Amino acid sequence: MNSKGGVAALTRRNYRLASDTDKPRSTGIVNEKLLSDYLHQVFPSATQAPAVTSLRKSLGFQDLSSHLENLLSEGESPEDSTGPSVEGRLGPQPVVLDHTSGFEGLLFVDDDLLGVIGHSNFSSIRATTCVYKGKWAYEVLISSQGLMQIGWCTLSCRFNQEEGVGDTPDSYAYDGNRVRKWNVTTTNYGKSWAAGDVVSCLLDLDEGTITFCLNGQSLGTAFTNIKTGPGVAYFPAISLSFKESVAFNFGSRPLRYPVEGYLPLQDPPTTDLIKAHKLLGYIKNVLSTSMDIQEDKLLDRDCAVWRLHGDPTVLITLAHIFNHFAPLMCKVYLVEDVLMNFLLGILEGGGSVDEHPLIQQLLDLFWLLMEEHEVNECLKQLMMSLLRAYRFSPIIPDLGFQIHYLRLTTAILRHEKSRKYLLNNVLFDVLRSVVFFYIKTPLRVKEAGLEELIPTTWWPTHFDKEGKDEREPKDESSDERLRRRAYERGCQRLKKRIEVVEELQVQILRLLLNNKDKTTGEPSRYIFLNKFRKFLQENASNRGQHPTALCPPEYMVCFLHRLITAVRSYWDEGTRKSPASLSSEEAYVPPQLFYNGKVDYFDLQRLGGLQSHLKKTLKDDLAGKANIIIDPAEIHSTSMDDLDEDEESGAAQRPFGAAAMGAALARPTWLSSPTLGRANRFLSTAAVSLMTPRRPLSQPEKVKVRTLAVEQRTEEDIEGSLGSDGLLLGRPQEEPDQPIIDKSLLEILDGIVMMYNLSVHQQLGKMVGVADEVHEYAVALKDTEEKIARCPSRRADILDELQKSQKVFAEKLNHLSRRLAWINATIYSKEKMLDVYWLLCVCIRTIEHADNTGSLFAFTPEFFLNVAMNAYSALKNYFSPANSMEELPGYEETLTQLAAILAKHFADPRIVGTDIKDSLMQALASYVCYPQSLRAVERIPEEQRVAMMRNLLAPYEQRPWAQTNWILVRLWRGCGFGYRYTRLPHLLKTKPEDANLPSLQKPCPSLLLQRHMAELLSLDKDMAASFLNSVLNQLNWAFSEFIGMIQEIQQAAERPERNFVDTRQLKVCATCFDLSVSLLRVLEMTVTLVPEIFLDWSRPSAELLLRRLAQLLNQVLNRVTAEKNLFDRVVNLRLPGLESVDHYPILVAVTGILVRILVDGEKQGTSRAASVLLSDPCFQLHSIQHLLGDPGESSGPAAASSGPAVGSLGSSVVPAVPAAVGNSSERKHFSLHAYTDYISEEEKQKVEVMLEFLTEESKQAAASTAPTCEEDLCPICYAHSISAIFKPCSHKSCKACINQHLMNNKDCFFCKATITGVEDYCKPTSS
Question: pTM value?
Answer without folding.
Answer: 0.83
